[in-house]
Specification:
alpha/beta, Multidrug-efflux Transporter Regulator, Chain: A, Domain 2, Methyltransferase, Methionine Synthase (B12-binding Domains), Chain A, domain 1, Rossmann fold, 6-stranded mixed beta sheet, two-stranded antiparallel ribbon, 12 helices, 46% helix, elongated
Length: 356
């Protein structure tokens, strides 16, 4: 007789759900969500109702719900499935689909934005009041679960869009990891590196998969000032501009002043975004120089608008031709206005002569 008539094995159900068999056994041991029936009283065999329960467990934990709470909810799913799902003779759980990326079970429908809630024990990170998805991402980061982080970031971008995902999911998690790193000596460095890499990958993928560039006008140049290595905020802006189909040129970290000057003169950009994370890296002389640069034919020469992005620029008066956006949404709005696109958000703080 075919053993699958009594359900599928732990290894088989783990492959269906994209988790390890050890994880499935751990959930059974810790939270009591094992199979309802065991063949011969020993071997685990998972019925369709059991698999539906584990599918819900995967979905809830991936979205940030604590495992114990997720297990209680998943148990109710099994009870409901048992009352409406007839036995499947060949032992297959027909309703279960392998998740994209093999990381978590695919939910039946797009989740609604999670409410802000206080972080609970489990991630080890000082999160405060954050979205449920943020807590889930933090747990995945601490576990160094790259596949799960990739899946969660992709789902968040598809569900909430670039700006909300960056401001309410990516940034709070990155800040929490940074605070933990600073307060724990050399601990959590690996968490910060892996999380940053996956955030960067998700942002670049979003930029590449955005609509084709519609404007044939001059590009917007994105660059970190000399000595500045933090590029993630610029990558988020690049992705946001890609969503608007606006032309950009990303130069990345620590761009030498001479190289930036040459790039501006050669490309004649509509705007130059200079990122500074700390006051120690903010180069106000460079910002004034770029804002005063002109190009084009005599009688019709023009110059770029310079956006001073990042906390490093705070506390100083703005030079003519510069603007200081208050965040990602405002930066996208300011740059969109230069190309005649609708502004998204407030116009930020700006000095005279910006043209926006």
């Amino acid at each position: 007789m075919d053993d699958t008539a009594h359900g599928i094995t732990t290894g088989a159900v783990a492959r269906r759900l994209g988790v390890s068999p050890t994880t499935v056994r751990s959930w059974e041991r810790r939270y009591g969500i094992g199979p309802a029936v065991r063949a011969d009283g020993r071997h685990r065999r998972w019925s369709p109702a059991d698999v539906a329960m584990l599918e819900e467990m995967c979905r809830l934990t991936a979205s940030g719900v604590p495992p114990a709470e997720a297990a209680r909810a998943a148990g109710k799913v099994r009870k409901a499935a048992e009352t409406r799902t007839p036995a499947v003779p060949d032992g297959r759980a027909a309703a279960v689909r392998p998740p994209a990326g093999g990381a978590v079970a695919e939910p039946a429908a797009e989740p609604a934005p999670g409410p802000a809630r206080s972080a609970r024990a489990g991630s080890g990170l000082p999160l405060g009041d954050v979205r449920q998805e943020c807590r889930g991402l933090a747990r995945a980061a601490v576990r160094l679960d790259g596949a799960l982080m990739e899946a969660m970031l992709g789902a968040a971008l598809a569900t909430y869009g670039l700006v909300t995902t960056w401001e309410e999911i990516m940034t709070p998690t990155l800040h929490a990891v940074g605070r933990k790193w600073e307060s724990s000596g050399d601990r959590y460095v690996e968490v910060e590196h892996l999380l940053s890499w996956h955030v960067s990958t998700a942002l670049r993928r979003a930029a590449v998969t955005g609509p084709s560039v519609a404007s044939q006008g001059p590009p917007t140049l994105l660059a970190c000032v000399p000595s500045e290595q933090h590029t993630l905020p610029l990558e988020a802006l690049a992705a946001g501009l890609a969503e608007q189909a606006l032309p950009t040129s990303m130069f990345g970290a620590a761009v030498p002043a001479e190289a930036l000057d040459a790039a501006v003169r050669r490309s004649g950009p509509a705007a130059v975004v200079l990122w500074s994370q700390a006051r120690s890296t903010a180069d106000h002389a460079l910002a004034r120089h770029i804002a005063g640069t002109t190009f084009g034919m005599r009688g019709a020469r023009t110059g770029p608008v310079v956006l001073l992005a990042g906390p490093g620029w705070r506390g100083r008066a703005l030079a003519p031709g510069t603007a200081r956006p208050g965040g990602l949404r405002e930066a996208i709005g300011l740059i969109s206005g230069l190309y005649g696109e609708p502004s998204a958000g407030n116009d930020g703080e700006r000095a005279g002569g910006t043209g926006v």
